[in-house]
Every structure is written in C-alpha cells, then in structure tokens.
Amino acid sequence: MPNLSLLQKTQIVTLLEEGWSIRALAQRFEVNKSTILRAKRKWQQERVVQRKNGSGRKRVRTPEDDENLIQFLQERVVQRKNGSGRKRVRTPEDDENLIQFLRNNAFESVVTAINRTNFPGHVRTARNRVRQDSDLRNRVAAKKPFLTADNKNQRIDDTEEDTNKEQLYDNQENVDNDPIVNKEAAINNACGWKSARHQTDNDVNATGKEAE
User: Fold this and answer.
1) For the chain, is the Cβ count within 10 Å smaller at the N or the C terminus?
2) Which of 133, 166, 187 is the last residue of a domain?
3) Dihedral of alpha carbons 45, 49, 52, 55, sign
C-alpha cells in the first residue's frame, strides 16, 4: 500500500469528523482500511497526524559496514593475468601476404585471398586487417538487371526495328550518291522542263492566231 502524505492524513481526519466511514475513506484514498484506522487512532490519542522523527525502522548497518563491504568486494575482484587470453593464430606475415595478394589481384574477393594465402583467420578478421592496415577499399560489383522473357523479346524487336531503319537510310543514301541515278534524274528533270516550256510556247502561238 502507498504511504499517506501529511496532506492526505489531514484530509482523512477532517472527513472522519464530518462523519465519513472508514470503508468509504479507504475506497476514496485507495488504501487499506487498517491505514485509515491507524490515522484515526493516532489523531484520537496524540491529536497529531505527522509522524515523529526516528519513529521508523531502525538502521541495521553503519557507514563502517558499507565501507567494509566495498573494500571486501574490491579485494575479491579476479584480475585477468597477462597472456592468459586466446593465443594469436596469425602473424604479421600472414596479414602482409593477404594484403599483397589483394594488391596484385584487385578483382579477387577476400574469401579467395584467404584460400590462396592460407590466412589463419575468419573472413571478418581478414576484412578488418585489410581496412585498417592498408589503403585498399572494398568495391561491390555492379549487378545486371534481371531480364524476363518479355524484356528480352522487347529488346529483340527494338533491335530489329532499328536495324531496318538503318538499312533503309543506307539504301536511300546510296541512291542519292549514285552518279548514274543522278544523271537520269537530271535528264528527266530537264526533259520535263523543256516539255513544259514547249507546251507554254504552243499555247501562246495558238492564242495569237486566234486573236488575228
């Protein structure tokens, strides 16, 4: 149960004198009925609601006890001996061989370098050594887009269409650059111009005769 504050105890005494029951006060302040009863008895016997100094549970330990406990725990701390850890399984030469292999084979992975140089360590250890002991940086290969059957067919259709357009363009360019074709076109244009001029002259002569 939560402890009642001085204000709550004062309110309880006031409400008791106004006629509130112990059960109603216990429900209102959400405490046990015995808590309300103790506050009531204290008020009736001592006419005070405040707790006396030193009336609580006596302290069972002293500051000296706390200090002795701390000192005992500090002395019992087990310190690790030098060299008692796991033995190092690789040498500086192993690290150098690994890094040198990657320098000479830029497109090989760390896993391949470990297998080729017999590096006695984990992949993560090898990567840490490369990152910390050299200027090499990890590069991730670009991934090609995944093509479905529809994508492939569409690309084939686009390629065939572009090829047909290029062939038509090349054929037209060859025709334009052919001297025989150009000569025939020039003759046809000239003949057509002469025919049109001759027709115009005939029309003029016919108009003159009609006028006479």
Assistant:
1) C
2) 133
3) positive
List all residues 6 or more positions away from 13 whose beta carbon is below 8 Å from its beta carbon: 39, 40, 43, 49
**Cα separation values, 81 from 49, 90, 96, Å:** 61, 22, 30
- Structural domains in the chain (count): 3
In a domain, 142, yes or no: no
**Residue 15 lies in domain:** 6-46
Tokens of 86: 């796991």
- Does this model's pTM top 0.90? My answer is no
What pLDDT, on the 0 to 100 scale, is given for residue 153?
87
Average pLDDT, the chain: 77
Query: pLDDT digits over 48-91, tens only?
Result: 888 777 666 777 888 888 888 888 887 776 666 777 777 777 88
User: And the tokens for 36?
Assistant: 């309300």
The larger pLDDT score, comparing residue 181 to residue 119, is at: 119
Shared domain check, 157 and 128:
no
Q: What is the C-alpha to C-alpha distance for residues 104 and 130, in angstroms, rounded to an integer?
A: 14
One-letter amino acid identity for 146? F
- Of 20, 3, 19, 6, residue with least CA distance to 48: 6
CA gap 174, 159 in Å, rounded: 22
**Interatomic CA distance for residues 155 and 162, integer angstroms:** 11
